[in-house]
Each structure stands twice: as C-alpha cells, then as structure tokens.
Specification:
By secondary structure, the protein is mostly helical. The chain has helices spanning 4-13, 18-27, 33-42, 48-59, 63-86, 115-139, 152-162, 177-198, 205-231, 235-248, 280-287; strands spanning 104-105, 149-150, 259-260, 263-264.
Length: 312
Amino acid sequence: MFGKSYVSTLIDRSAETPADRRRFMKTAGATGLGIVGATALGGVVANSASASTMSADANAISDATVLNFALNLEYLEAEFYSYAVYGHGLPDSLTYGTGHRGPVEGGREVHFKSRAVGQFAKEVARDEYDHVAFLRTALGKSAVARPEININSSFTAAATAAGLIKKGEKFDVYANEDNFMLGAFIFEDVGVTAYKGAAPLISNKTYLSAAAGILAVEAYHASNIRTRLYDRGFAAQANAISAARDSLDGPGHDDQGITVGGVENIVPADSNSLAFGRSPGQVLNIVYLTPKAANSGGFFPEGVNGQLHTSA
C-alpha cells in the first residue's frame, strides 16, 4: 500500500543522523546544494537567511529517526499482546537491528474468559506484529533493534503510581482479562498521542501517510479498550491511570479518563473535537515512568534505541 521498496530506498538514504540526512539532501539535489558547493569551491559567504536554513537542516530530526522512535513503542506493544495471546514474544527475526538488542522480562498467556475480549486481543496482537514488520521493512538497515523491555515490574510500578494497588503489592497484568484491559489502556492512548505528536516532525509525505495509517489503527484499539472498560465498570481505575499519565508527561492537563463529570468519555478530544499529541520526550516520560528527564526506566530499563531516547 505504501510502496515498501520505495520507502526503504528513501529511508536508507536518509538514515538516522543529521549527517546522513544532509547527504540525502545533497544526492536529491535539495535546497542548499548550491550554497554548499559555492562555499566549498569559491569561499562565498552565504547570507544570514541561507545560513539559518542550513543550520536548521543540520539540526532537523530525520524521518527515519521519528519512525525508529515509533518502532521502539511498537516493539513494546507487540511483545505485550503477543505474550497475552500466544504465551511467547516476537520471533527473533523481528528484533535485530542497530543499537543494543535486549531481552523481554515477564509476559505470559492470558486465560480469556470472554470470547469477545479474546478475539479483540488476538486482532490487536496481529496488528502490532504487522506494525513492527512494516516499520522494519520501511526502515531497512536503519531499523533499530528491540530494546530491553520489562513487562513484569513495570506494570506494578504503573499500577502503584495510579493508586490501583498499595506499595509492596503486585499487579499481574496477565492474571485475568480485566487486568489485561487496564494494562492495554496504559499503552493505546499513549500510542495515539505519540503518532499525533510526531506527525509535524515528518517531512516526507509517504512516511506521513504510513504514520497516519498506524495512528488510525491505534485509535481504533484505544477507543475499543476505553469502551470495554467503561462497560465493565472500570471507569474509576481507568481514570486513575489517566491521571497518572497526566502527572508524568508534564505540566499540561490534556489526558482524559473514560468518564468526565460522571459521563462516558470514549474520545479524549479538545474543545474542537481534536485529539491531542505528545512530544517524544513526553511519551518517554510515561513509558520510563518518570516526570523528570531520563534516558531509561519503567518499561525500558536500558532506554529506547535511536536518537530520540531522552524524556522531557
């Protein structure tokens, strides 16, 4: 659908560092080529506007960097759902790449009692698997490896922060389908806001189209989870998780629970009915489980791979 070979070729030429991106701009004959050549050959000093543009290009976040950041999150979701449905994680063939490849701690099969929830979990597991496979194919040799993921103690820490359990207690996200749905609620809303926040950082329309397609799928997942939790009477617990996310991602108060003023709130939108976005740093605040700047923690004990790895 997105022309994978074409995407792969472009990203390989626009890999993950500013230097790679500048080389890609040169080979593509992008704006600034004449300035670079003239400066190198004739000693011509570029005017301030051109110099400013070149500086911005040098510091810009490449599209591959943004997609690799998303790939880290997809690894987390894919592993979480794969264990819940199948009792095992991703195949090794989908976990190698640049950066440190880490293990997955925790994870086991959920014994679903509800046919509807079990089928939903299986569908989402397939979607997240496909997202990992697609992004890896698109990124080619620039794709980052799966970082170390902690599914075990991280959910306990998140549940403690939300007040779902007391300090010293354990939250087993795989113990039953209710716990599983609450755990999924932590991820899916964050995934939607992550792709929304990343959209302005993506310059290539092909990559933007792919990211928009994944965002739409994540939004379907999130709305389904919010609806099921509401119907099952877990509004208070979900709202507590929402408040915990809100306390982690910065001073704003954008996150919304599944009820507002006692009324069902399936779509967390602003006054214009628009979804909000989170910056990569804000997303990392949540998955690192810290409101401070950090390079690791929570679900990623050694941090994520790629250039975007520090929380806000």
